[in-house]
């Protein structure tokens, strides 16, 4: 395994422990971290907002059903493109985001600036937890039982 975690992939208890830790970190960040409601939530859920707007507009007759469907497909394409870019940049983003958060926190004296740094740290924790989930599930990808479990 080429991830950062070193664990015994043959020990299912260790795999589950690492996976549980990563998922718990992700849930903690999603529930209790310092998200700036105007920027963080909007950024992370923009495709959902577009889908709701498009379906509501199509239901009221403001736009045609085809236009609403095209808008939803556009958000899917945009999300897929952002994910491909993020996957290629992940080796740079993972260490850079916490550094940016720290610089913001220690350099900005205002409360608003420090709140923004907490949002950046929350994004760093999300990236870390997703990386941990990928590392913890790597041994499962090669097991012959995966198709039986998923399918």
Would you kindly provide a written description of the structure presented here, covering whatever features stand out?
With 151 residues, the protein is an all-alpha fold. Helix content is 79%, strand content 0%. The protein contains 6 helices and no strands. The protein has helices at 12-32, 40-44, 46-60, 65-107, 111-141, 146-150. Helix 1 (12-32) runs antiparallel to helix 5 (111-141). The radius of gyration is 19 Å and the shape is flat. It starts with 11 loop residues before the first helix and ends with a helix. The model is unreliable at 36-42 (pLDDT under 50).
- Round the Cα radius of gyration to an integer and report it: 19 Å
Poorly predicted regions are 36-42
Number of helices: 6
Binned, the helix content reads: over 70%
Order of helices and strands: HHHHHH
Biggest β-sheet, characterized?
Answer: none
Sheet/helix structural class = mainly alpha
Mean pLDDT: 76
- For the termini, the CA-CA separation is 25 Å
Task: Count the beta strands.
Answer: 0
What is the global morphology?
flat
Report the sheet-strand fraction.
under 5%
Q: What key attributes describe this structure?
A:
151 residues; 0% strand; 6 helices; 79% helix; mainly alpha
Summarize the helices and strands and which ones pair or pack.
Blueprint: H1 12-32, H2 40-44, H3 46-60, H4 65-107, H5 111-141, H6 146-150
Helix pairs in contact: 1-5, 3-4, 4-5
């Amino acid at each position: 395994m080429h991830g950062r975690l070193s664990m015994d992939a043959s020990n299912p208890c260790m795999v589950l422990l690492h996976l549980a830790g990563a998922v718990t970190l992700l849930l903690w960040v999603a529930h209790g971290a310092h998200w700036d409601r105007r920027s963080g939530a909007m950024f992370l859920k923009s495709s959902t907002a577009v889908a709701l707007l498009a379906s509501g507009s199509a239901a009221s007759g403001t736009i045609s059903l085809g236009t609403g469907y095209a808008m939803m497909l556009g958000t899917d394409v945009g999300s897929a493109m952002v994910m491909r870019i993020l996957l290629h940049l992940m080796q740079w983003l993972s260490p850079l985001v916490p550094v940016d958060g720290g610089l913001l926190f220690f350099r900005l004296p205002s409360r608003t600036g420090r709140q923004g740094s907490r949002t950046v740290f929350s994004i760093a924790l999300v990236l870390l937890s997703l990386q941990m989930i990928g590392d913890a599930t790597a041994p499962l990808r090669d097991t012959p039982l995966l198709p039986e479990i998923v399918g």
